[in-house]
């Protein structure tokens, strides 16, 4: 479907020329410096008496250079896009949109937050008869269903209020946090508006109270053994009458049975894909995580500016918006929660064939999920048996694939007539023996977003990335170290799974998409390899410093200048990227620190788990990030204090390595000041590494020795880390 209201374009894009020039210049200069560095290593490595540590350092530097190379294509052509939704034709020509809101566990994803996301989606600035919202409750919790019924009741008064006063922030919780009585456009309203707002706020407080009562009475238990449940949420029997004013809302809990694979979030999304096809069958789908509310009601119209562009539309698979977070500090992002580096990569990827699918905040074409652009015959010239093998046994669903997309109200009597077939589409064994999760729908993986986007790009679909000035979606990022590390371990477990499978981007993707795009996919798939060089750089030079083994050239030599240049080149480039995107020096420090934290714990465990899974000693699992945060955690985050109450499995490696660096720093400093031993110039160069680690990770020292609050490093972790450090030191001295 293509539509333009005039000769004016619906969107435009332009290259960020300064960033392009800076990135390309740095790539060339830094690349040349790396060649000189490796020349030194290769010419000196076998001229040393201690070859093994030099081989380790060469390996570490080679892996870092490999990952650096993978990172370069996403920097070479960064572009920005802008949409002009006011240029779209009339509402009657807009296609319908289905919205999928995914939740799994009300104990970790509070029902009130989930329903705020649902209400904000229902309140999008889009024709209500063409907007359909589906809630996927993957925990099968009665709380979520009852909360959805209350959300529908509140939406009946909230949505008209938003339309009447052109409210921009249509998530009620976020809206009522604003103190000033102004609307989204900054206009101060009359006493009528103030009175109506007060009444709506009172109704919202009642809504919150009812949600709390439901949670208290029903609890937040989830089930892994329940039949499919599909409910159309409505107060009245005449849903069509309500639909003239409100979007369609449905609750879906797919069937789950013990010991039956459910394929995590991808399995839930595929059930929604099938169920929605039988009810509303919209050509475009918005996918939202349960905590990612709609902050700008115009996002659907902005996405349509690309999907309906006659030049882009034929092969455009999805439009990706960035994930922005309302609870992350702008100037002191200690956990790197903004994920700034990802969105900068996405701008560069947009200059190739489009960004990677990112889990939430994207509008995807339904047809793209059903197959490649050429896989479906418009005349229906495919055998039914082939369709059953591909899409499953439901003839009703198969009929919906080539059916013209319905922009009218859902026929609820038809829904009731087909209820058994619709429920069968949500059964736990429907996709067995079919192409679901492999070539059809969202692809089955712990990182279903990455894998689905990868397969779509391999099939010829493209994508675009748009980052409007006003964030279209806002969510909550983890503000404790434990949840943050666990989230990254889960992500990079899934990415490493793909990187070490037959779908490895450099092998599978390079023959099916642009080579440079496959390199960008490989960049993420192999990011977890950082743990190898980081462990080597955090341990080997420090032990060698204690043992008086020189790993670097004399400070006075030109070769040392090469090492120094490579280090400062990478640091300066990173700082330039952080500052140019509006962030602070503190954010730069936070990103540096979290990169090392990730490498030394989550990346290590993610890679280890993948290897164990490959040899049959571990099964993949998925657990949603905990979105429940207490007041003390929020206060510590606002003060810029790390909450170190993470698993000992995360904290012991971090603290042990820090303790080792402190020890080598102290020994090296004593030798430099005393001038004892030979090779003081080499000692000085080698001493700079632990100096950098000690200064950068000073918050760890604070947490171990000086802090007394609940967020400090636990005494158990401190003692264990000291013991590990002493054991490593004694072992190195004995050898």
Our count of domains comes out at: 2
Runs with pLDDT <50, length 5+? Answer: 179-184
Q: How is the largest sheet built, in terms of strand order?
A: 5-6-4-3-7-11-9-12
Q: Radius of gyration, Cα only, in angstroms?
A: 28 Å
Gross geometry: globular
Compute the average pLDDT. 88
Helix content: 40-55%
Chain-wise SSE layout:
Elements: E1 11-15, H1 17-44, H2 51-71, H3 73-76, E2 79-83, E3 97-103, H4 111-122, E4 131-137, H5 142-164, H6 172-176, H7 191-218, E5 229-232, H8 239-243, E6 248-253, H9 264-279, E7 284-289, E8 293-294, H10 299-307, E9 316-320, E10 324-325, H11 340-350, E11 362-365, H12 366-370, H13 384-391, H14 395-402, H15 412-417, H16 419-425, H17 448-458, E12 462-465, E13 473-475, H18 481-499, H19 505-509, H20 515-525, H21 531-546, H22 558-580, H23 585-600, H24 602-614, H25 631-638, H26 648-674, H27 680-696, H28 698-706, H29 715-734
Parallel strand pairs: 3-4, 3-7, 4-6, 9-12, 10-13
Antiparallel strand pairs: 1-2, 5-6, 7-11, 8-13, 9-11
